[in-house]
Amino acid sequence: MLLSDLPNDIIIIVLRNFPVSDLGALSRTSRLFYHLVNTYGWQIHIRCNPRPSFSLTKAREIWHPRIRLQYDTLSDKSWSTSHFVARPLSHPWPRKQQSTLAINNTRLIVAAGNTIYSYAFGVSRASGSPPLLFEGSFSLHEERNSQWDITALTFVHDNGEGKTLLCGFRNGTLARVVLVKEDASNKLALQIDMEVDLYSHTPDVVESISASGSLCLSLSSRGQARMRNIQPTSYTSISEVDLATRSWTTYISDESSPYVAFGSSSKIAPLSVYSILEGSFSSTPTAILGIESGQPMSHSAVYGICRSPLSSPWGASPQILISGWFDGVVRVHDLRSSLLTEHLSDNSNSSGIPTSAAPLRPVMSLNDPWSIEPVYSVSSGGGACSHLAAGSARHSVVSFWDIRYPKSGWSVYAPGNDPSPVYSVVLESSRVYGATDSRPFVYDFGPNVTHDTYPQLSPSPGLKPRRSVPGYYVTRYSHGHAF
């Protein structure tokens, strides 16, 4: 029996197991298979092989599935060969800043000092990289002093409009910022709402803000964490927990078995996980995530947390956590482990942290063998949705690993070689956004990047344009040997 003799619904089921190359070959054999592949095959492959990307959302809405798969396939190939275009997104800021990034389907926001810089995602009709358009910069407070510097930033739920930010400041204030278009000029403007001061962390620094669905989590430098249910016009306080230690970062997941994770400098629990039960934190941690067996945690800290990529060896579960540590190691923990129930005891300190708990060990540990610097930021995604990115604490270095082949890691310096931490990094299917203390930057692994894909910049010291591609020279090296 030939494949064409089967009923169409059976053929469609078979198509889901075909790689892109086989789908393309099959579509060229007959009119029947051309119709089935173009109508069902490409779309089925996209659904079974997701490539999450905020900056490509608008373009993907108008791309034919075949064009979308062509873009993803070429991007994956570039990831496999470490081929990309490096571009700074702005000139250096007037002074060194502790910058941060926020992203959604509409735009990328860069915060530095008390100013936010907005970049909108454009649309490309063909399979080229959609453009990134600079919309403008806006100061969030009249007083230009460091107490009003933005220290944390995230987009929050606003009924799908994608224009509401929650900002945390050095003085502990929280503010809602709404991005609006002016009717006459269609220029971007801001609406700033400071009413959420009722839930501020004054006088502590707002160290981190995370959001998932309608839940938002904020954390102060002294370990005071607050979770809220966010509505378009109100912020309702839900739950609080005091970690009672120097704290750095948060992560929240509202998917199955909701939980929050905190990164801190605690000698007992630098990475702790609390379940969300009926809209509130659990009274004690449900997991304490540790380091490799035989190594002390007393001198470690956690600065960055994210979920694992969708194509990880452990599956697409939100219960897989990635974390960046002070000792320069990126660790992967599986919260589904049956050992968790054995690791927690009834003996707790004043913060509710079990003092005799044995921390859950990581299932994978990654590091740049040529660097001893702490990891300040982490993100997941990349080619085949199987990569991790880690921003270093010095020299503006970003490290990458394909967790299917963890020994094949490599690192690259940011454009300009700023002697700076990479404070924030966002990893997408074809793009990597990062921010140092001097400027934001991007690595683009997608096809057909042009000089107009990103904002044009005049020549400046430290940046050397490449002649063959519309990018800048950057230094990269393998974790095994130099490129």
TrEMBL record:
<dbReference type="Pfam" id="PF00646">
    <property type="entry name" value="F-box"/>
</dbReference>
<dbReference type="InterPro" id="IPR015943">
    <property type="entry name" value="WD40/YVTN_repeat-like_dom_sf"/>
</dbReference>
<dbReference type="InterPro" id="IPR001810">
    <property type="entry name" value="F-box_dom"/>
</dbReference>
<protein>
    <recommendedName>
        <fullName>F-box domain-containing protein</fullName>
    </recommendedName>
</protein>
<feature type="domain" description="F-box">
    <location>
        <begin position="1"/>
        <end position="45"/>
    </location>
</feature>
<dbReference type="InterPro" id="IPR036322">
    <property type="entry name" value="WD40_repeat_dom_sf"/>
</dbReference>
<dbReference type="InterPro" id="IPR036047">
    <property type="entry name" value="F-box-like_dom_sf"/>
</dbReference>
